[in-house]
Every structure is written in C-alpha cells, then in structure tokens.
Recover the amino acids of this structure.
C-alpha cells in the first residue's frame, strides 16, 4: 500500500538561520511586530510503498538519516504517515 | 504570552518540484526503491506574542498570507501552535 510520510527537518536551535532572520525583518517591515525568532525548516513528503504505516515511517526515518537530514546541523522528525497526499493537521488555506 | 506557530508551505500538486525530483533520484541510487513522488516544502516557525493560541494562529496565518506563501503556486496550513520551541508531533531523532 502507498503511504505519504511527512518529515520535518529543522536546524538545531544553536545554528544560525539567516533565511529566518531575513523573513523576520521583512515581517517587521510589514508591521508584524509581535513576531520574532523566525526559523525556516524543510518539510519533505515521501510516497512510500509499504505493508503498514509503521513500515512506511521506518523507511522515511532511514531516508532522513541517510540522505535528507544533516545530523550535525539539523534534527528531523516524522510528523505524519497518512494515505492521503496532504497533511491532516491544520486547515489548508 | 509567547507561542510558537508552525506553518507548513507546500507547492500545489500540479506544480513541478525539481528539488523533490533530485532527491527522488538520489534516494533511488541509495537503494530506496519503495520511495517515489518526493516533494520538498517549507516549514516556518514563528515566535508570536499573543493573548491566546488562537490569536497566535491568526497572526501566523496573516503572515503566511501576506509574505511567506505564494498563493499562486503554494498552499499553507498552520500545523501547530505550541508554547514549546519544537513540534509535539513525531519523535525527534
């Protein structure tokens, strides 16, 4: 069966995020004064053929460990395994 | 109070994702033959000063609408509002 595995990849807290800083300044210029500490990560979606959601999650974690995430600067987590091609959390806008 | 608002930004299904394609090929070379249709999105974390989680979510949605997401090519969703500086979903690795 096919599953969609969503993997969030974020820089570790101690690592500077210049892209996030740039967005923080832009938001501040637009009047979003209540926003600070903006960080940009990656959200990878893999379509995985697997026997079960757990097996799909395992394959996704392997892929993150071996290729997608840089263990020195980043940390990753599988945030969802679903049979739908979109995240179930949050309302799409 | 401070909240961390996580916003997932993905290209619309109809829009090509060359970065995703590149990763798909790399994964296939590494022997991940069960993975296909790889797509890369952004995961933005904002720290928002707001009176309630709902107010923080609203500010995050406004920021996504006005700056972070390109409504023509992308869709976004607020996937989490939390008082912790990390996603609660998924186990971090």
């Amino acid at each position: 069966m096919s599953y969609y595995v969503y993997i969030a990849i974020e820089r570790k807290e101690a690592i500077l995020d210049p892209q996030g800083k740039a967005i923080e300044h832009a938001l501040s210029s637009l009047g979003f004064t209540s926003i600070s500490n903006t960080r940009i990560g990656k959200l990878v979606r893999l379509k995985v053929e697997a026997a079960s959601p757990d097996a799909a999650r395992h394959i996704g974690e392997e892929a993150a460990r071996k290729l997608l995430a840089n263990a020195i600067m980043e940390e990753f987590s599988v945030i969802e395994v679903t049979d739908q091609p979109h995240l179930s959390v949050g309302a799409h806008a």
User: Anything to note?
Assistant: The first strand of chain B starts at residue 2 and ends at 11. The domain at 2-15+41-82 of chain B is CATH 3.30.1280.10 (Mth169; Chain: A ,). Chain B touches chain A through 50 residues (CB under 8 Å).
